[in-house]
Structure formats: structure tokens, C-alpha cells
Design brief:
This protein is α/β, with parallel strands linked by helices. 40% of the residues lie in helices and 23% in strands.
Length: 575
Amino acid sequence: MRPVQSPLVRGLKKAPTGITGFDEITGGGLPLGRTTLLVGGPGSGKTILALQFLVHGAQACKEPGIFVAFEESSKRIVANAESFGWKLAELRRKKLHFIDVPPIPDLIQSGNFDLSGMLAALEAQIREMGARRIVFDALDVVLALLPDLASKRREVYRLHEWLLARKLTGIITSKAGGDDTRSISPDSLGFMQFMMDCTVILNHSVVQGVSQRNLRVQKYRGTSFDENQSPFVIGTSGLEVAVARTLGYVDTNATTERVSSGVERLDTMLGGGYYRGASVLITGFPGTAKTTLSGAFAEAACRRGERTMFISFDSDSAEVIRNLTSVGIRLDRYVKNGCLRMISARTITGSAELFLARLKTLANEHGARCVVIDPLSILSKSGNELTAHSVAERLIDWSKAGGITLVCTGLLDEASMEGSSSLQISKIADTWIHLNYLVQAGERNRGMSIIKSRGMGHSNQVRELILSDAGVTVTDTYTAGGEVLMGTLRWEKESAERVAKEVGEVAGKLKRVRLEAEEAELEMRVKSLQVELEAKQVEKALLVSTTESREGELSQGRTRIRELRGADTAVPARK
């Protein structure tokens, strides 16, 4: 996601720091050619932020830099920064120079002390290497040795004017007392905040035993900036500042590509599976098969050849693999070939912010396309209640930006449908699948329903989830008299319907045979009557023919007799 800068932000030139999140909240980095004040208590990350600013300038911006150390020696600073992978040994040859300026007690006591000599030496070094960035780390250590406030102000003004005259982008770090987040006190060095163009306050505190780090830009002349306090962590590559999704960010591309959930019937209920890059939440009480559905998804992803990461907080990796094998889910083969990375822990060590930073690092190292977190509700444990929801939101934003399909489980409490009142991830998840128990006839059975699935048609029916050696099966539930039937009652209902169907089929066959016999009998009777009818017709025709022939013979006989008798012959008259 990229912030859309306002015209005011674009009008002021910025020096990028390379710190993830920090350049977003400042609209591009620190003011170019000006001075920034970093204020924070011990261990708040001032030196790391300042050094990271120099490293990024040297590596990415072709701006050589100088680090002036007033308190800790540069040798120790470089040794401490080795774990970040900044390759300081290479940079120190031409692009990054360290100068140690420890305070000399004898010089301070004599009262003959100012920064002129140091600045003169720095000017020669700047010309030699063409430095454009500079850091004065722990300037307050030297200023604290000056006799009065007027002397301190004099040297700070001297340094500030020197930086402005040379148009160097500078950082000055200063301590705040203890966990004080307000800055240095006004009666000592507080005037420095009024002089500098930008002031950043770092805070490191402990909340219910959990370490929390926060950063806030207190002032930034000539530009707009995010004024809210932002959490940050010190990760494997330096500081990472958390940035929430705000107005003006460019949305990530949405895809219609589907990926399988690992359960065929569930894919059917979802109309084809989850969307690629979607966030999926599976909630339920302990034992409702949340881990099983997550494991089925991980197996399906590995079967497609997609690198997957499975983070479990409930069981060790070996136990998760063993337990899922009992329901036909075989993850061990994918762990061996490197497609699947299993990570287990009993709880989050450190803050939820640190967990998110570590998760992103591990996922990037593995090249994960799919990530499973079981359960995500672990984020809301003691000490993280205030930040858990924000971390969950940024976790989803990160997965969407990278096209990573995220499947999380949420452990429900006894009183609500949410895994935690502070987490509330169900409101921002794309797909929410809920698992529950139904106790009937002395049995505890598992039910599954899709509460929501954005952007796709999905089933609104409650289905029974059955786990067996053959795998995960989703079946229809039965309703009788307004009661949902599962388990044995469902099996009995199915058996009764099956028997009734068989009885009906047999009765139908018997009736068909009887009807066919009756039909055959009637056909025989019809044929017999037809034969009898034909005989009668022949007999009738013969009778008619005989009668007509006899009558003709009699008529001819009578005519012949009359002729012989002459009875009917007319005698002609004589004249």
C-alpha cells in the first residue's frame, strides 16, 4: 500500500529513512537539509533509528553520512548493529564515518569547553567524503557537563546554525528521563524542541509485564504528518513502525481466483473455495475441529505446490502432525520436502507487535503463499489487549498486499461468539466459518456453518462435520419436528428412510407383477372372445348364405312349375 501525498507533503523535500512505516507517517522521511530531534528514554531505539537513517542514505540514496558518538563508543555501536545485516564494514570505507567524541572531565572542569573544535574537524571530514547526512548521538551527555543553562543554549545554537549553513540533514538524539514520553524537561534542554524543524519522541514501556515500544512525531514544520502514536519493534533488519490502513492508501488488487479449503464439500458450500489472498476465520470451542480444518487447508495448499507456513500455539509441531494423521491429513511429507514450515510456541513472547514483525520475517524467508495461525486469539493475552485488534488488522492488510491466503482460528469464550472482546477479527475477516457442538441422546456432535463469505454465494445451512480415518466429511443434517438431528439420531433417521425406501420399492415391484398378470389374463380373455366372436361371425355368414341360396332355389322352382302348367301363359284371341 502506498500513501497518496497531499500537495503540502510534495512541496517539502524529504530525506527517506528506509524505516518501514516511518516514511509513511512522515510523508517521505525527515526534512532534507534540516535538523531532527530524537527524544526517548533508555532502550527506546534512538541510536538504532539514527544509524538506520545513515545506512539507508549511504546504500540507497548515495548520501554519505557521519555518526558522532558522544556516549557509547563507535566500536560497540557497530558491533551491536551487526545483527541487522547492514554491512557496516563495507560502508565504513567510503560512505559512512564514525567519530568518537567522549567528554573530557578535565576540560569540562576548567570551563574552557565548546563545540568549535569538533565542528572544525567535522567540516574537513564532510568535504573529504561529501557527506550529506549526520547524526549527533547523545548530545545531552556533553551538554549536561556545561556549567549553566546559558552555556548549553549557546552550544546548541552554535550546532544548529552550523548544520543549517551546510544544508546537512541532521539528527540529534537526547534522553528523556525513565519512561517519560513527553520529552526532555523544559527547564533543562527543552528549548531544543523549539529550535528543531522536526521532533520525534520514542517510548519504551512495560504493560502488564509485556514490553511495548511506541513512536510519535511531535512536530514537523512545513508538512502534514500522522500525529498519532504508532507502535514499533526492533526487528531483524532494524526498526519497523506499524502503520494502520487510512484514507488515501491505494487498495490492493482483488482477484477472483479460488483456492481449495481441503474439504470438497466445504468448497461446494463456498461455491468453489476461498478467494486467493482472502482472510479466513474459523471459530469454535476447544475440540470442534478448528485445527483439523486448518490442517486440511495447509495440506491442499502444499498439494498445489504452494509454500505454506503453519503456526501453532496449542501444540508442538510433531503433535499437530501426528494428530492430523489420525483424520487422513498427512503433513509430514510436505515438511520433509520443504514446502511446509511448522512453527510452534506455547504463547507469544513479547508484544503482539513483535509477533507480527517476526511472522512477516518468517513468511518472507519461506516465501509463503498461504499462512495458518492456530489460534490467532492468542494475540489478546495479558498485556496486549489494547493493541491486539490493531495488530490483527495490520496482519490482514499485510497478507492481502502480498496475495497471501490467511487462515486463522479463534478460540471462543463461554459468553460470546467472538474469540476475544478486544480482538474482534470476525468483523474484518473475509470468510467466517463457525464450529459448534450439538449434544443429543448422550452424544456430542460437531456442527459447521458459514456465517459470512464476502463476494461469493455460500450455503446458509448447518452441516455436520464428521472426523474419521478416511478424512473430514461434511454431511447434511436432518430436521424433525423443528429439531436438528446429528450423530446416531441422524443415522437412525437415514436407516429408517433407507428401509422405508426399500419396502416401498419391493411393494412397487409386487404391485407391478400383479398388474402385469392381470393384464395378461385380460389379454387372454380378450383373445378368446375375439376367436369366439369370429366363429359366430362365420356361422352367421354361413347361415345367411345358406338361407339366401335356399330361397333362390325355391323361387326358381315355383317359376318352373308355373311354366309347365301354363297357368300364367296368356292365350292369344282368335278373330
